[in-house]
Amino acid sequence: MSSRTVIRGGLVVTAADETHADVLIEDGRIAALAASGTPAAEAFTAERTIDATGKYVIPGGVDGHTHMEMPFGGTYASDTFETGTRAAAWGGTTTIVDFAIQSKGGTLREGLDAWHAKAEGNCAVDYGFHMIVSDVNEDTLKEMDLLVEEGVTSFKQFMAYPGVFYSDDGQILRAMQRAAGNGGLIMMHAENGIAIDVLVGQALARGETDPRHHGEVRKALLEAEATHRAIRLAQVAGAPLYVVHVSAREAVAELTRARDEGLPVFGETCPQYLFLSTDNLAEPDFEGAKYVCSTPLRPRDHQAALWRGLRTDDLQVVSTDHCPFCFAGQKELGRGDFSRIPNGLPGVENRMDLLHQAVVDGHISRRRWIEIACAAPARMFGLYPKKGTIAPGADADVVVYDPHAEQVLSAAAHHMNVDYSAYEGKRVTGRVETVLSRGEPVITEREYTGRAGHGVYTPRSTCQYLD
Question: What is the rounded CA–CA span in Å between residue 367 and residue 364?
Answer without folding.
Answer: 8
